[in-house]
Amino acid sequence: MALITYIGGTVAVSAAVPATVDQAGFAALTYTAVGSITEWGEVGDSSEDVTETTLAGRTYHANGALDGGSVAFTILSNGTDAGLTILKTKNNTNDEVSVKITDPDGQITYFFGKVANLKDRQRTASTMKGQTGEFRVNSATVRV
Fold first, then answer.
1. Which of 75, 51, 53, 77 is nearest to 64 (CA)?
2. Are 62 and 50 in contact (CB under 8 A)?
3. Where are the beta strands (DSSP E) in 1-144?
4. Is the pLDDT score of 82 beyond 90?
5. What's the superkingdom here (predicted)?
6. DSSP label at 122?
7. Element (H, E) at 79
8. pLDDT tens digits, residue range 92-127?
9. 48, β-bridge pairs
């Protein structure tokens, strides 16, 4: 398999959640592209490290609850962007938003959660106008 970059990938959002957390459920939603994404952080579950130490002095580990975590993102301001409008409208509410990421090789990744902490980017001479935020994942990550 050839190595690829994420150039050409897209991120789209839906203001709805799927009826089922699987490919069919997510694919049934209508998504709106978010333009000018410059960075979308790591996606995927991490498991809690559940530990117990015996009196003999040995610590045992087990994989516990799964957590999709908080995914940082950065977007540029480019005027009227319907996807960005969804993110702004849902920012710091408890409304769920579904995400569809399409990689250049065709892999699709779905999940849903909450948009939080949308802020203007730092203003410097070498920074383009935009926003940063985080997406708090509340579902399994579905890859197709």
1. 51
2. yes
3. 10-14, 32-33, 37-40, 46-53, 59-67, 70-76, 97-102, 108-120, 130-137, 142-143
4. yes
5. Bacteria
6. P
7. none
8. 999 999 999 999 999 999 999 999 999 999 999 999
9. none
Interatomic CA distance for residues 41 and 133, integer angstroms: 10
The residue length of the chain stands at 144
Q: From residue 111, how far is each of 16, 36, 51, 58, 99 by CA, in Å?
A: 11, 20, 28, 38, 6
What's at 64, amino acid-wise?
A: G
**Of the candidates 16, 10, 26, 23, the residue with the CA atom closest to the CA atom of residue 97:** 16
Q: What percent of the chain has pLDDT over 70?
A: 99
Closest to 31 in 3D by CA, of 92, 111, 136: 111
CA 77 to centroid of chain Cα atoms:
19
Query: How far apart, in whole angstroms, are the C-alpha atoms of residue 100 and residue 34?
Result: 10
Give, for 129, the enclosing helix (H) or strand (E).
none
CA dist 8 and 105 (Å) reads 9
Q: What is the mean pLDDT of residues 34-63?
A: 96
Q: Measure the CA–CA gap between 11 and 74, rounded to whole angstroms.
A: 12
